[in-house]
Amino acid sequence: MKKYNFYAGPSILSEHTIKNTAEAILDFSGMGLSIMEISHRSKEFIAVMEKAQLLFKELLGIPDGYSVLFLQGGASLQFCMVPYNLLVNKAAYLDTGSWASKAIKEAKIFGEVDVVASSKDSTYGFIPKGYKIPSDADYFHITTNNTIYGTEIKKDIDAPVPLVADMSSDIFSRPMDVSKYALIYGGAQKNLAPSGVTFVIIRNDILGNVSRPIPTMLDYATHIEKESMFNTPPVVPVYAALQTLEWYRQKGGVGAMHRENNEKAELIYGEIDRNKLFEPNVKDPEDRSIMNVTFVMNHHYKDLESEFLAYATEKGMVGIKGHRSVGGFRASIYNAMPLSGVEALVEVMKEFEKKH
Amino acid sequence: MKKYNFYAGPSILSEHTIKNTAEAILDFSGMGLSIMEISHRSKEFIAVMEKAQLLFKELLGIPDGYSVLFLQGGASLQFCMVPYNLLVNKAAYLDTGSWASKAIKEAKIFGEVDVVASSKDSTYGFIPKGYKIPSDADYFHITTNNTIYGTEIKKDIDAPVPLVADMSSDIFSRPMDVSKYALIYGGAQKNLAPSGVTFVIIRNDILGNVSRPIPTMLDYATHIEKESMFNTPPVVPVYAALQTLEWYRQKGGVGAMHRENNEKAELIYGEIDRNKLFEPNVKDPEDRSIMNVTFVMNHHYKDLESEFLAYATEKGMVGIKGHRSVGGFRASIYNAMPLSGVEALVEVMKEFEKKH
Asked: Would you say A311 and A348 are in contact if contact means Cβ atoms under 8 Å apart?
């Protein structure tokens, strides 16, 4: 039976990424050695690192003056690196979920934090609007996609201060205007690579304003200067990221990914809205994530929840259990999820409706 | 032609590690999914993490009261995490090389640093002895193996204060008495795994003395409490580490590795001492690393350096060029290097001598 991987992250990667990475583990670049055991200073690996940075820039249309970094520690380490490097007096944060709230917690260690709006009281079921970004903030931080709740900021916003975005789970899902951001970061384990590599897109001129001493590894300037090779980078995850980037180019770039993502999202949200057994967590279509689709049983059918989970799992739908904080179900339909996977899930939802 | 991988790191890994990791990239644990795309919260991956921690403890005989952590960021991030968590007033460091000196630089951000001894003036060609560890230091930091210079502290030393060791490049090379250490850390890309995972062995009771606020990701207490699963761990490197640990057990544990390492080291140092073309960088046998063997051309034959490098490379000896700061050659003979690799290199050295 065909299995479909709906895990929220680490999550589905393209066959291209998986196959090429497995091959490089056995023999990298015709060297007769595994990519796991070659020097990161070898010309073969330096070429990987350079190509990955270039493709990142090409696919997202990153303007001059920005650097692309491949670091370690996940978005969680960025939660402290961002204020370490950028927070002089005050930072503004939008609280759209548990990851945003973790970022806020770390920023408070370094200075004043102004939480401009929060949807916490509604279990983060929508993206707050109409908030005001203080013009004296050192930066404004947003989490563009909220994997647990299924909300997403799907447009590049305008901010009167440097905009910092955690895009761990929706980078490469749509074309974007990078020039509106001062810094974009994310763990790679959604739309890019296995866990273990963290991407950072940074406008070089935003650094140098804080007076606190910054440990070398936590200083973005270190990694910009050394082009992500200050210390040994996570070689295998970076190689896998390059494979995904090449696959994106082959598929037609982020514009093509966006069209497919919208098609997948419309199909599944359409079914959730239509099917009498289910209802969406996120009511406002504007806020609905095209990466993580969260839904629950309609209140008349609450007792069918575990039965549907078992039924769908048996039909090959892997990882659709919702996060414990919202319950129900979550179908993560990242870039590498084919339309056929979403069609299969919708079919299972229809079949289950017929049974009841 | 058979190639032998003498890279200093990332470096040679066992066939067992390479083959099993490549297989898991294609299909992990019979799940029908790649290990790159499964949730780190899946029971299959939790089992990997737990087994790796247990085997670490078993192989090194780690006493109760210690935790084994798998983190990110390499030894370079530990250089700041150690003082962040442990430096109240003053720390003592032994300066045995460029990595030790980088660790010292980071510690100075957090407090007073007493460098008890240094061999810097002799290009770090020996391990300083007869130094005094101040009894009021919060900890004493050593780098047990110095990859660039080829020196090694091959015995567990006694310290009157908590002992902290960077064992990036010699962990698992010999049986050791972990109870003499408060904290041991290292990048895994020598004797354990591909780059991207950092091991930390920590005595739990050494924490809690500093008053500075510690960012969550930099606080060892976070990772002890969450058993290295606070955020998404580097799944592939951790899996590869487990394969190496299982291979060590199959080979008879660290005692067996130590016997083999000594045999390899005696063979190559013996040839360097005997062969008229070469001379060792490290004169005192007590200080000679059994992991990284550094040597140069004898001063009568200096002009043969690039010829020997080309000759050896042509014969399949990969990565034996010495680090630019010491020149000459470096044969890294980590645990996974078979005796036959060292025999092949010695044969090449003998052949080259015959030619001249």
From this structure: yes
ipTM of the complex in this document: 0.97
Interchain contact, A10 vs B230, CB within 8 Å: no
Q: Does A229 touch chain B (CB under 8 A)?
A: no
Domains and CATH numbers, chain A: 15-251 (3.40.640.10), 252-355 (3.90.1150.10)
Cα-based distances in Å from A244 to A46, A154, A336, B37, B231: 18, 22, 9, 13, 23
- Answer whether 0.90 is exceeded by the pTM: yes
Instruction: List the catalytic residue out of A95, A138, A154, A166.
Output: A166
| B 116-175 residues inside an 8 A Cβ radius of A | none
For residue A3, which residues of chain B lie inside 8 Å, CB to CB? 32-33
Contact B236 A237 (CB under 8 A): yes
In the chain, the amino acid numbered A41 is R
CB half-sphere exposure, A73, CA atoms < 13 A? 25
Give B-chain residues touching A194 at CB under 8 angstroms: 35-37, 234-236
Length of chain B in terms of residues written: 356
Distance CA B81, CA A216 (A): 11
Helix (H, G, I), strand (E, B) or coil at B331: strand
Concatenated DSSP letters for B103-144?
A: HHHHHTTTSEEEEEEE-GGGTT-S---S----TT-S-EEEES
Residues near A210 by Cβ (< 8 Å), separated by ≥ 6? A84, A85, A86, A87, A88
Cα atoms in the 13 Å half-sphere on the side-chain side of A101 = 11
Q: What is the pLDDT along chain B (356 residues), one digit of tens a residue?
A: 889 999 999 999 999 999 999 999 999 999 889 999 999 999 999 999 999 999 999 999 999 999 999 999 999 999 999 999 999 999 999 999 999 999 999 999 999 999 999 999 999 999 999 999 999 999 999 999 999 999 999 999 999 999 999 999 999 999 999 999 999 999 999 999 999 999 999 999 999 999 999 999 999 999 999 999 999 999 999 999 999 999 999 999 999 999 999 999 999 999 999 999 999 999 999 999 999 999 999 999 999 999 999 999 999 999 999 999 999 999 999 999 999 999 999 999 999 999 99
Give first-to-last CA distance, chain A, whole Å. 24
Per CB-CB distance under 8 Å, the chain A contacts of B18 are 25-26, 34, 36-37
